[in-house]
Amino acid sequence: MNIPKQTSEIFSILSKGNFISSNGSRGKLFDVINFEDNFQTLKEFFAHTGYHLEKGHNYYYFSQQEETNTIMEKKLEQFAYYIDVMDFFSSMDVKPVVGTRYRVTQIAEECYANERLKQKLYALSRREKMVDKVAEIANDLTAGGFFEQEDEDTYKVMDAIHYLEQVITLITIEEEDGEQADS
User: Fold this and answer.
1) Residues 124 and 133 sit within 8 Å (Cβ to Cβ)
2) Is residue 177 over pLDDT 80?
3) Contact 21, 27 (CB under 8 A)
4) Which Pfam families does the annotation name (predicted)?
5) What is the DSSP letter of 179?
6) Cα separations in angstroms, 29 against 11, 96, 109, 152, 171
């Protein structure tokens, strides 16, 4: 098995729960994984570590088949937060699509002008200042691999945002009479 020389760097990023997106600063690693037979080679290599290399729409990530209940609960809590964050961004004038750039100060200004957005933001962050609240959320999305910080005030939406969108569309809530309602 001839694995790429960047394998340890790829593992280091993905094993922390991050994504490698084609449109980010890690685009070269995306290209390495995507090159010829590298995806299959790396998939087989990482399978020995307990991780499964997965491909999404222009991004890669690890999944694990065997996880403890504690890890699953933490992931569900984190995802509940991401759902609220996506609801916040989806309520803005500019929706979170791949390649969109957000300025923290611009989002804060929009929240000042829109009471509904302001209330959603207050529910997501306990910081004092509006700009700090927005920066905290943007940093959380950056840490998750869904945004990438371009400069002090600007964040770019990564291809991995499709992962959040796909999981959110899969969620159904059982109504009391046993019928399903999409949420």
Assistant:
1) yes
2) no
3) yes
4) MksE
5) -
6) 11, 24, 36, 24, 31
Query: What pTM does this model have?
Result: 0.81
C-alpha distances (whole Å) from 56 to each of 13, 41, 94, 167 are 16, 17, 24, 12
Instruction: Write the single-letter amino acid at 177.
Output: D
Please give the C-alpha separations between residue 130 and each of 30, 89, 91, 107, in angstroms, as whole numbers: 35, 15, 17, 9
Q: What is the pLDDT of residues 37-85, one digit of tens each?
A: 999 999 999 998 889 999 999 999 998 877 677 777 887 888 889 999 9
Structure tokens at 142: 């950056």
> Strand, coil or helix: what is 71?
helix
